[in-house]
Design brief:
The chain is of the alpha/beta class. Helix content is 40%, strand content 15%. One of its GO terms (molecular function) is hydrolase activity, acting on glycosyl bonds.
């Protein structure tokens, strides 16, 4: 069975990894990676290099992003991605193409495949993120897909409502958590030395813009900077840089200026990679920002999360989340409360045992019918 895998960013590739590792070593499958989006962006770490190190026999590289990130540039990049993939789908065919999540580039690649009858299998459909236009892109991808692998039962119900059928919809859990019980972080001393971290507690920080009502991002980025400046006086900050979202550069510029003002209190990371990122999460005091990894993965590491603003609003949450408005004072107050709570010991609503094995079994059983 010939499988194509669409990956447009460091984030979705890290989520795919447990599944890719098993598919790559299963003789039933022939796998090709289709890398695009920020993987081909030098300003975002040119992460296609990391994919190449993982030893796939075939990696397609499709470049279509503009360097700007205002609304016109994002819309133009969407159109360019559709055009590039119109050519790609003309000359490449698969029994199934896996796609994941909700980014605009992923939506564009999938929409271009509709006239070609490409069979898509969508991972992480049925979710809701009211503070991001990704909510729309996610549903577009779901509507174009024939197989659906959701991360929780509540998302399965939403997806069935959206599609009007339960055919091809399976609740499997989050694949990024599939091997979490076996995960072993890099040993603390080598990890701290690798990234020149001081021997003290740190906060793992990731902020992205809110792409619904993008005009407010100037204010939000300012509030973020004020909060981070204050927090850095008490806790070291490890900040992973924003993705290529609408007006993401506003947050990026504030973060870079903050680093310049407090170089001894802040570490900036363009691309951690999954093992380094999970190790950072393992050693962090808490997580801060508005990234999906705080919602989906942090509970499995026993970490509290200060989730800021509405970007992740609507997602199912475990009991480790402190929802906080985009106000500097509120952010600082929530960080203080989270640090006083110690470690989180509850369950993760996104975890189901054997998510990857379930997906592989479903794909094999559906092979003749999709």
């Amino acid at each position: 069975m010939k499988i194509g895998v669409l990956t447009s960013s460091r984030a979705d590739y890290g989520i795919y990894l447990p599944l890719l590792e098993k598919i790559k070593n299963d003789s039933f499958f022939s796998v090709e990676i289709i890398a695009f989006g920020t993987h081909l962006s030098k300003s975002h770490g040119y992460t296609v290099n990391d994919i190449e190190k993982d030893g796939y026999k075939k990696i397609h590289k499709i470049s279509s992003l503009l360097s700007n990130d205002d609304e016109q540039a994002i819309s133009t990049s969407y159109g360019l991605t559709v055009l590039k993939f119109a050519d790609f789908w003309t000359s490449n065919s698969y029994d199934l193409v896996l796609c994941l999540g909700d980014r605009f580039e992923m939506s564009a690649a999938v929409q271009a495949g509709i006239p070609f009858g490409v069979k898509f299998g969508h991972i992480h459909g049925g979710e809701t993120t009211l503070g991001a236009i990704d909510n729309i892109y996610r549903h577009q991808i779901s509507l174009a897909s024939v197989l659906h692998f959701t991360a929780a039962d509540v998302f399965t119900e939403k997806l069935i409502s959206l599609l009007g059928t339960d055919t091809g919809v399976f609740s499997v859990g989050s694949i990024s958590l599939d091997d979490i019980a076996r995960f072993e972080p890099i040993e603390k001393k080598p990890f701290y030395e690798k990234f020149s971290l001081p021997n003290e507690e740190f906060v793992l920080v990731t902020f992205h813009p809110e792409t619904v009502g993008a005009e407010v991002n100037h204010d939000y980025a300012g509030e973020m900077r004020v909060a981070l400046e204050k927090i850095s006086k008490e806790l070291f900050l490890v900040i992973t840089m924003p993705n290529a979202d609408t007006l993401g550069s506003i947050f990026r510029e504030e973060i870079i200026e903050l680093k310049s003002a407090y170089p001894e209190r802040i570490l900036l990371i363009e691309n951690f990679g999954k093992v380094n990122y999970f190790s950072a999460m393992y050693y962090a005091k808490l997580l801060l920002g508005n990234t999906s990894s705080g919602i989906i993965e942090a509970a499995s590491f026993g970490k509290y999360v200060v989730n800021v603003g509405d970007r992740q609003k609507g997602r199912a949450q475990s009991n480790n989340i402190f929802d906080t408005p985009f106000k500097a004072e509120a952010i600082c107050d929530s960080v203080k409360k989270a640090t006083e709570n110690g470690g989180f010991r509850g369950d993760n609503v996104y975890y189901k045992n054997g998510a990857v094995s379930a997906i592989i079994k479903i794909i094999k059983e559906s092979y003749e019918n999709i």
